[in-house]
TrEMBL record:
The lineage of its organism: Bacteria, Pseudomonadati, Pseudomonadota, Betaproteobacteria, Burkholderiales. This is DNA-binding transcriptional regulator, LysR family. One of its GO terms (biological process) is DNA-templated transcription. Keywords: DNA-binding, Transcription, Transcription regulation. One of its GO terms (molecular function) is DNA-binding transcription factor activity. The keyword Transmembrane does not apply. It comes from the Bacteria.
Length: 315
């Protein structure tokens, strides 16, 4: 058994790693008060005691007192003349102070602008391009204090952004793991490029699609539209396949085949004339877009504000 005074292994005064902690603790006592550092930065930037006092919501005498206190702690003069020009030491220290204050303003894992609320939104690609982005300026104008961070998500195929605050999912709407609300339902109909129609048409009835290249996507099954037309056809088992409706629309516009597309998502291509409808027949999509969130998310006002805005914008 050891005799005499002994030092516990977890004491800050031990050498090595704990010794480093002791050195830091000793140094921490010499760190100037944060209000002195903030005041020094403001006075160096504004060069006016009155303006610095107004910015910091203190009296001019408090500004002078804090700067003098800082100089006493550091043991050096920071300002050389009555116009508040910096000494050589003051200029060097100002750079360090600004770097430190900037670091304190950044919360770990976040690069959002200080004072703003950050909202992470995971959204399906074509919904983002065709529906959300054209409307998003309305939201940013009403809520300039919210910074949006958009991420791509394809939940139907298990491509998800797990750290998102809100998620736009496209699917059947049975989400036991999240709360959700339906935001968009749509109709589907076949679309193709004008050149494809000229080459393979005319298409006068649904049966004319027999033998025609049909572009496929697990996001929009052809059997939905076949059933609406009274066709007892199986889902196509051959042909190009896409997990993004926008890519499938681009492929159809390039003449690769006929795509079954939701009309709202296909609007940009229809408006530009790169895709056209083959028939007047349309069918309800078995899937819809839903806004989803974990329990408790709507307690944050920025999440509730976006959810309310999105539902209005989709009507």
């Amino acid at each position: 058994m050891a005799t005499g005074s002994s030092t516990p292994k977890d004491a800050f005064s031990t050498r090595g790693q704990d010794g480093g902690a002791a050195n830091w603790a000793s140094g921490a006592r010499r760190i100037p008060p944060i209000q002195c550092l903030v005041t020094f930065e403001a006075l160096a930037r504004l060069r006016s005691v009155t303006q610095s006092a107004e910015e910091l919501c203190v009296t001019p005498s408090a500004v002078s007192h804090r700067v003098k206190q800082l100089e006493q702690i550091l043991g050096t003069r920071l300002f050389g003349r009555a116009d508040f020009s910096l000494t050589t030491e003051g200029s060097a220290y100002l750079a360090q102070v600004r770097e430190g204050l900037s670091a304190l303003q950044r919360f770990p894992g976040s690069d959002a602008t200080p004072g703003k609320r950050r909202l992470k939104l995971a959204v399906t690609p074509t919904f983002a391009r065709a529906i959300l982005i054209p409307r998003l300026r309305q939201f940013t104008e009403v809520y300039p204090e919210i910074d949006l961070a958009l991420q791509v998500s394809i939940p139907l195929l298990d491509v998800v952004a797990e750290d998102a605050d809100l998620v736009v999912r496209f699917g059947p709407g049975h989400y036991a793991d999240m709360e959700h609300v339906e935001i968009a339902r749509d109709m589907v109909t076949p679309l193709a490029s004008p050149a494809f129609l000229r080459e393979h048409g005319p298409f006068e009835r649904p049966g004319d699609l027999e033998g025609i290249p049909l572009l496929r996507s697990p996001l929009e099954p052809w059997r939905t539209w076949f059933a609406a037309c009274g066709l007892d056809w199986p889902a196509p088992s051959e042909g190009s396949q896409f997990n993004d409706i926008g890519l499938m629309c681009d492929a159809a516009a390039a003449g690769m085949g006929v795509a079954l597309v939701r009309l709202k998502l296909g609007a940009p291509w229809l408006d530009q004339g790169t895709l056209v409808r083959l028939f007047d027949i349309q069918a309800p999509s078995p899937h819809a877009h839903y806004l989803c969130w974990r329990t408790g998310t709507m307690d944050r006002w920025e999440c509730a504000a976006f959810a309310e805005w999105l539902q209005r914008a989709m009507n």
